[in-house]
């Protein structure tokens, strides 16, 4: 039986269940230390798989479209952070100071890979360019995001580890496994492609483990007592406003710069989304353990809103007429 459209996707439901589990039965004491160690292993495995799955042929196929990639990177690492900072007088009163730092945190992350590429494909966009842009954003974000966060977010958060030294930690935690995966792709790439289902479990399971560990520490420190219902309601508005503004910016910028519709689709889905897979380990490194839960709340909520909104937008793009020169693959033969 197919899942009703009004329900979140299975992974989002698993995320909500993980947060509920951490809220009811948080890991404490020696168990929490064991989970932290296991979390670092899971993060390394996650980015190793990202590196091993990334096709170099796909990168080469889309890399020549430099104007598109430049607009996507500018949207991700320039326009998004500027919006988060410029809209502070409007956004900050709607949420707690800790949640607003989480909003700034999500603004400075790279784009997500899987869903950006998937929605581009559903909407009949330029998939090769989407693969290149999304993977390039993830790779560049390993370096750029920690710098942006260190400049604009970490200094405002008491109890964070040494900021600039964290960049090296992130590079070791994320970049080293990613590079190792790329180097071993020729040996294990075909095996990975044939076991997509199992790898999806590892991919999503790693994120769920990190979320449980982060929220356990936050709950032990009194997270839900510090975040009022009004703050959560305000956070919903903030995330919706940010996503709406970025969807408008990316679509209108693409049209004004004369991009084809297929390229516009790629720009919209790669330039307006943020990565949960990259954000969670970065937050784990940059912020004190007990604060990670509150920092991640905006990202988790934004993640769900972007999936729901982009699913609707992708279906609308997909309904556009096919070019006259391109036969409709859904049309019956002989029509």
- Separation of the first and last Cα atoms: 33 Å
Taken together, the total number of domains comes to 1
Tally of individual helices: 16
Order of helices and strands: HHHHHHHHHHHHHHHH
Mean pLDDT: 79
Beta percentage is under 5%
Instruction: Round the Cα radius of gyration to an integer and report it.
Output: 20 Å
Number of strand elements: 0
Overall shape: globular
User: From the coordinates shown, what is the CATH architecture?
Assistant: Up-down Bundle
Oligomer: single chain
Largest β-sheet summary: none
The CATH class turns out to be Mainly Alpha
Helix content: over 70%
User: Which structural class is indicated by helix and strand composition?
Assistant: mainly alpha
What are the low-pLDDT stretches, counting only 5+ consecutive residues below 50? 158-163
- CATH topology term: Na+/H+ antiporter like fold
Q: Would you kindly provide a brief summary of this structure?
A:
By secondary structure, the protein is mostly helical. The chain has helices at 10-24, 29-53, 56-63, 66-86, 88-91, 97-107, 114-122, 127-152, 163-183, 185-193, 196-220, 223-226, 229-256, 261-271, 276-286, 292-318.
Keywords:
Na+/H+ antiporter like fold; mainly alpha; globular; 16 helices; 335 residues
């Amino acid at each position: 039986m197919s899942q009703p459209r009004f329900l979140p996707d299975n992974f989002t439901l698993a995320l909500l269940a993980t947060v509920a589990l951490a809220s009811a039965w948080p890991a404490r004491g020696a168990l929490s230390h064991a989970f932290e160690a296991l979390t670092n292993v899971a993060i390394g495995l996650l980015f190793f798989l990202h590196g091993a799955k990334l096709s170099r042929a796909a990168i080469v196929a889309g890399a020549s479209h430099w104007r598109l990639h430049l607009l996507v990177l500018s949207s991700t690492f320039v326009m998004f952070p500027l919006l988060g900072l410029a809209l502070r007088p409007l956004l900050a009163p709607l949420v707690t100071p800790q949640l607003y730092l989480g909003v700034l945190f999500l603004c400075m992350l790279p784009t997500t890979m899987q869903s950006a590429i998937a929605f581009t494909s559903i909407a009949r966009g330029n998939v090769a360019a989407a693969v290149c842009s999304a993977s390039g954003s993830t790779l560049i974000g390993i370096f750029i995001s920690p710098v942006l966060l260190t400049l604009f977010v970490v200094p405002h958060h008491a109890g964070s580890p040494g900021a600039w030294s964290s960049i090296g930690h992130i590079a070791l935690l994320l970049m080293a496994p990613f590079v190792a995966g790329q180097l071993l792709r020729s040996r294990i790439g075909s095996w990975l492609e044939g076991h997509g289902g199992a790898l999806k479990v590892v991919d999503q399971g790693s994120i769920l483990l990190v979320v449980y560990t982060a929220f356990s520490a936050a709950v032990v420190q009194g997270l839900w007592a510090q975040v009022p219902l009004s703050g959560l309601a305000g956070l919903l508005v903030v995330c919706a406003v940010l996503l709406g503004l970025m969807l408008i910016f990316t679509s209108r910028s693409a049209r004004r710069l004369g991009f084809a519709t297929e390229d516009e689709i790629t720009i919209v889905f790669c330039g307006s989304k943020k990565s949960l897979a990259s954000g969670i380990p970065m937050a784990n490194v940059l912020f004190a353990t007990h604060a990670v839960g509150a920092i991640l709340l905006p990202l988790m909520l934004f993640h769900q809103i972007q999936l729901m909104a982009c699913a609707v937008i992708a279906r609308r793009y997909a309904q556009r007429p096919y070019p006259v020169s391109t036969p409709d693959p859904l049309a019956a033969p002989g029509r």
